[in-house]
Amino acid sequence: MPKYEELKAFRKQNLIPEYNDSSSEKTMLHREARALAISRLEESARTEEEFANVISWWDKLDDNRERRERYHEIGRSEVPLEWHASDYILPGNANYDMVLWQQILAGDFIDYIFDEPDYIHELVRSQDLCLILKNMKEHQKQLLYYVVVRSYSTLQYAELNGKTDRNVRGVRETAIKQIRKKYKTALETRLLHLPWTLTLDEKYFLENGVRTKDEKNSEKQ
Fold first, then answer.
1. Domain for residue 208, yes or no?
2. How far is the C-alpha of 67 from the C-alpha of 155, rounded, in Å?
3. Residues 57 and 81 in one domain
4. What would the pLDDT profile of 156-196 be if each residue is shown by its tens digit?
5. Buried/exposed code over 58-85 (b: 16+ C-beta within 10 A; e: otherwise)
6. Which end of the chain has fewer beta carbons closer than 10 Å to its terminal beta carbon, N or C?
7. Cut 0.70: pTM above it
8. pLDDT in tens, 76-114
9. No. of H helices and E strands in the chain?
10. Residue 86 lies in a domain
């Protein structure tokens, strides 16, 4: 839900007073108006439908609060290499072991504990991606771990596993297509039932697909 959007809905239901900018009467703080509206909703609820409405409003406000809290949390990013990897300290093509070592020195052991192909789903923050990766086939997990996380080339991975480079690239493309297809389905479901939980990147992916390198560079500029 957009910021302060609930106040507009509360005013339409006459749960909080409508103040004009020119009014000499003191304007209520947003949190005071929100608390007043919820209190009036709770006190006026009589039927099961009205109580369900109260619960739905509490759920929406809790989601907003949790989202604001996440903005101030230091957690795992979508790409493990970006966590505690500073451009001023590490080279542009940083070694994954260097990042893990930095995390260990800082007391962060989560990525080190799950540094295995079978636990690649633990290296992402998105719950949707986590479930998708968790349910992938073992050989796909292994390939994604070494090629994506460990930055092995497809030729290196092919030589280590006695396969051809073409075969490895084919498996990689198939796995990525499956992930994108399932991820899009998951986002469409969330858009239908929980639209306020989608991030800007997720909305962009739904509407336009994966960003190209040129689009990423233009955004940075």
1. yes
2. 42
3. no
4. 999 989 999 999 999 999 999 999 999 999 999 999 998 88
5. eebeeebeeeeeeeeeeebeeebbebbb
6. C
7. no
8. 544 444 444 444 444 445 577 877 888 888 888 888 889
9. 11, 0
10. yes
